[in-house]
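Sequence decides. Our protein:
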Amino acid sequence: MAIVTPLQQAIERFLLLYSVSKASDRVDNLGNTKLQKFTFLSEWEMIDKRERGFSYFYLKYEKGPYSFDLANDIKRLLKANIVRKQQWSITLTNFGDSIVEDFSRLLSQNSHVASIIDRTIHKYAEYSLQELLEAVYVLPHPYVRGYTIRTAPLKMPLLYKLPEEKVMVPFKADDAQIEDLLVSLSTKGLKHWQAVRDDMRRAEYLTYKEVFGSARS
């Protein structure tokens, strides 16, 4: 199995935030299972098109494709207060919203992967959980002929990272963007955002003199 670098992890978590942002606006009760399937379907298309985006390792599990790496990313984002769960539905916090907004240029630079996520969510947004599961179960195994997702044995690999030499459309980001993204997706980023928010709130109550100093005579 190919090694996923910290850089790739940052890209995946950012795209995961974008997926949650898009899906939570259209999907009732965006739970873990639906998010797993949306990401699986998006990643599959990215791999087919040789585009660098999601690189989660998926295997056949009790409810079809499942990625423990994705599940762990959700836990990390919950811990960093970037996403939250309300009655088992996953949504972005204000901090998560600010990350997606602040890095909108990164999405524009990589519209090829953003559009895949958009299309996937648009296609399946109104499916019930059972309808979504059934739509995935009947799909053929991505690599092994003779199997569907339903008939694949438990723990059989389904998707894995596209090797670098096979990538035809890389994810576009400069060093400064990646550095900022890594900070934003950490607890350090949360503390910085909270400090900025607190400064803005304090500014609402400052007097003219406190902001600009004594008036000149």
